[in-house]
Specification:
This is Calsyntenin-1. GO terms for molecular function: calcium ion binding. With 982 residues, this protein is of the alpha+beta class. Helix content is 19%, strand content 35%. Helix 12 packs antiparallel against helix 13. The N and C termini lie far apart (189 Å). It is built from 16 helices and 59 strands. Among the domains are: 108 residues, Immunoglobulin-like (Sandwich), CATH 2.60.40; 96 residues, Cadherins (Immunoglobulin-like, Sandwich), CATH 2.60.40; 107 residues, Immunoglobulin-like (Sandwich); 218 residues, Jelly Rolls (Sandwich), CATH 2.60.120; 145 residues. The longest helix is centred in the last third of the chain and has 27 residues.
Length: 982
Amino acid sequence: MRFRGNTQCASAVGLLLGLLCAVEAAKVNKHKPWIETTYHGIITENDDKVLLDPPLIALDKDAPLRYAESFEVTLTEEGEICGFRIHGQNVPFEAVVLDKSTGEGVIRAKDKMDCELQKEHTFTIQAYDCGEGPDGANMKKSHKATVHIQVNDINEYSPVFKEKTYKATVLEGKKYDSILKVEAVDADCSFQFSQICNYEIVTPDVPFTVDKDGFIKNTEKLNYGKERMYKLTVTAYDCGKNRASEDVLVKISVKPTCKPSWQGFSKRIEYEPGTGSLGLFPSMHLETCDEPITSIRASIELETNHIGKGCDRDTYSEKSLHTLCGASSGTVELLPAPSSSANWTVGLPTDNGHDSDQVFEFNGTQAIKVPEGMVNTNLKEPFTISVWMRHGPGAHEKETILCNSDKREMNRHHYSLYVHNCRLILLLRQDPSEAENYKPAEFHWKLDQACDKEWHHYVLNVEVPSVALFVDGTMFEPFLVTEDYPLHASKIETQLTIGACWQDNSGHDNDTESVSEPTSGGNARMVQFFRGNLAGLMIRSGKLENKKVIDCLYTCKEGLDVQLPEEVAAAVKVEFNPSQSSLTVEGDDIDAFDKVMQHISYLNSRQFPTPGIRHLRISTTVKCFNGESCVAVPDVEGYVMVLQPEEPKISLSGIDHFARSAAEFESQEGVTLFPELRIVSTITREVETDPESEVAEGADDDPTVQETVVSEEIMHNLDTCEVTVVGDELDGEHESLELDMSQLQQRGLVMGSSNLGLVITGVNSMANYEQLLHLIRYKNWHTEALFDRKFKLVCSELNGRYVSNDFKVEVNVIHTANPVEHANNAMMQPNFINPVHHASVDLSGHNLVNAHQASVVPSAATIVIVVCVSFLVFMIILGVFRIRAAHQRTMRDQESGKENEMDWDDSALTITVNPMETYEDQHSSEEEEEEEEEESEDGEEEDDITSAESESSEDEEGAEPEDQQGASRQQQLEWDDSTLTY
């Protein structure tokens, strides 16, 4: 309240009031404000209000002050509080007075609080009053009180797992208390919201549980065979029931109970022919379950006893193999593949296939005789007998492999090779010219190989009086040698037999050998039959086989191989058997041992290997410190599958139809049969096509077609080419097939010939065979009755495994009344030769009749045909004249006459031989037409019908027999002669 008056009126009272004010001023701001010494506050996260306990109130005992200033009197309430002050660095709070008179105030946050940054705040606070006068001078401050503020958390964060994935491995058949622990964390600051209260497996139906601490264990025993790995999804919850933001994946692998074994082995291994060496165990290792081992020994066996003669070998003839292995000449093959030149093995059961070596089966009732003159063995000279044999358990009787005995009467065995009670025995009787004293006559070898039902290679080097036996390349000494007197002199011829011994029942057995009763009439003179399989039986006179040749004959084309790494070569020992079908690996360092096993490979060097399965077996022995086998490693079995090779197609092509003058056939050189022969071998491959190229070429009509066929030429050897006569056999009195023998010898080939043709045998390149076939000549010294000759050529590889097409050649003989002109015409006829270019189709002769008709019309003959046509016109005119002059003839006679004229016309148009020939030569022409008709019936020349013949067949209701046609033509020619007399 303010009072105003003039200064004159108030001057009396001024002094009194001044005294009173001084007294009151001394009383008004006498005391300091008072607050509590400690405050505790709570603030919620993301809020600014602080709840204090106790509340913030400042008290002041001073009375209200009234004072005047320049005629103004101000009345102040007693103990007013003007403010609060907070002390501390970076305190995020402020204090505000709500009521000055009561001293009530609050503390609030400057910004929203974050518990995760700071959970508690501590600072000091002071209250101060308003002081004296309007300007607040002489204000009083309270003491400093301590304030503790806690930031309350809210559940704003979810649990997060520490790892992205958890992995563990357990052993099958065992229950675990704890397999692994998963752990999640929460970013909230409070214990309640940052604590993980629960874990849970989300994946249903799994044999695992998880507890509140994150430990996972299995609820049942695990089985490796049932499940090798379990994948679980696990989540977590905090105490505020917030779920983890992302669940975690847990992988638990089940490990089988540790059993020593080979790991990483593939049971089936495919081998592509021609790809060289193939690793068998690239990822294999030996699991020993941490046993302290001292040595490891493994045997790897490649079982190939079902392939040919024990493994994959070239299927050339045994004679060719001897040549390839470097054996000198003089080898005679006694069990050749049946052919026209070697037919004594026809009828013996074979292996019924060409993929592997050809073998012959002897069942105890069959034997064969070797033709006379095939073997001329002088026992005084060294000679070699070699044979492949597979023989089962031995019988009590002798089983003869090879026997040379008397052909009649005496029944003496001059020499023989036989099996008796698992013993291989060679009987070798001396010649009668020797002195009458004992000499070695029988050599006995006791061999397990003779009765184990497996293929083995036997070589006997005979050099009287010693004999050396090699079985599978290993030399064996005889355990028994018996002696005997030489044979008595006689003029009886001998008989060489295979599979039994020849014996004349009319004579006596001077060698006191047991004689079996004949089982059938066809085998009445055979005894001591062999039961088993034989192949490659050879006799070589004059020279012994050396060890190098023997090893070459026995060596397989397939086997095991290993390339030892340098770092383990000294730590591991590797040994092979002679055929390389098995090997042993021995060492004490398991890491080095594994590396060696990973470098073992399969190799087949054949160009066309035998397809099929080769079984593999690994046997392992592991020893520990006590020297005993402490770890039992089971055997491992698998197989190598050799895929079917791409088979070659051998194609023969060249000139298949030509004509030569009779003088050339009768000349000293003869006629070359295959002057432009080509031998080409191709293989057909299926390759994947390029989809882009298909689209570019417009070949996308069928989207399912993914492969195309292409052919490419390859080079390989041939071992046989056979030229045979088609039709009548060769007549040795006036015709022959000839080949320069020196050319054969230069190439190491052999030729056999007969009245059926000739056969060239031996392994050599296609180029060399082609050159030799170019040199084959046909001669004929009696060509008057010959108009054509046909031959067929067939070549083969690997003893008949791959056979070419039948290449047929027809040669025609050109006869002429004037030999000089005929020779000149023959020299001028390039169109006599009908070349057939090489193509990948059947190259056998086609359209031979057309070719013949188109090629045997010389220019001189053309003039004669013109003359004949003139005669024909003349005779037609004459016939018309006669018809008009003879009115008494009936219409039927006229029609018959026209038919006769047409028949004569038809025959004139189809004459294909030289018209200069006399009628006496017509008979040979008719024979040639008969041969052509026979070929047409065989389906080889069905399309080779001339247009004239086709028209004639359409006009006639029935074809006349050839003899009637010939007679008709004869009458026409005679009638023609009669017309010339007019």
